[in-house]
Amino acid sequence: MSAAPPVFLGSEVVEKHLHRASLLIPSLEAALANFSSGAEGGVVQPMRTVVPVQKYSGFLGVMPAYSSKADALTTKLVTFYEHKKDSSVPSHQATILLFDPRNGSLKAIMDGSVITAKRTAAVSAIATKFLMPADSEVLCILGAGVQAYSHYEVFTEQFSFKEVRIWNRTKENAVKFARSAKGPVQVCSSAQEAVTGADVIITVTMATTPILFGEWIKPGAHVNAIGASRPDWRELDDEVMKKSVLYVDSREAALNESGDVILSRAEIFAELGEVVKGTKPALPEKTTVFKSLGIAIEDTVAAKLVYDSWSAGN
User: Fold this and answer.
1) What is Dmax (Cα atoms) for the chain?
2) Terminus-to-terminus CA distance in the chain, angstroms?
3) Which is nearest to 50 in space by CA: 42, 37, 61?
4) Where are the alpha helices (DSSP H) in 132-198?
5) pTM
6) N or C: which terminus of the chain has fewer CB atoms within 10 Å of its end residue's CB?
């Protein structure tokens, strides 16, 4: 007897089942804690494989993961292209394959771009919950792409900031972002203007050289660094990296994939999963950086959540 054909869950279906970060955050916190628990956490996740598409300045990434505790097996295929001439095509496009871990049959093919955007922002929110200074009032976003929108959506759902600022190299994109936001957003003419006095800073840019400098950041601020996912790319300068307490999603990934970590030679204090499970402290009174590279187990638990929610309704 042959297995049932896989279902296809497109972006609208995925969006419907991940419409609030509060639905996703508990599963992600458990996944991060399990990931940082070694063998007893039940997570098997090799380093992502990245294939350069040199002719077109692109990359193909393959990100498999298995969680015995979540009973979930997936792989994500993600492409990353700079698209300097064609901004109508997203820089990141992704597809996630969800398998039945009992027998290996393919259960679902689902849009991975929405999951990537949502889970990345939700993990940043987890880091921010632990690491942002008390009574934080000012949120700053550097960048105006897909991740800027997902972070704004999640952060305004999870936190109460009195002021939100945005800066982007192409100002009209920042203006477009501000006009589409559900609350007031101040468009800044420079990154320094946006950062000065901010309590929480999110960098979601395509930068390959630093756009955030330590001299701008007020003591005790928290930075979520999302871009610069290649070993020779930077978003943050050495001063940011060396004067901050550094948290990462994965030590192995950060030491192999993050230009901000590799080139600054900054010391990693903890994985976020270690903070979630209480084996390493959060230090919100310090200046902190969470360097996010995005790990496959985050996609796995998010895809399982979407599939289970969809199945329950069908």
Assistant:
1) 65
2) 23
3) 61
4) 146-158, 171-180, 191-195
5) 0.94
6) N
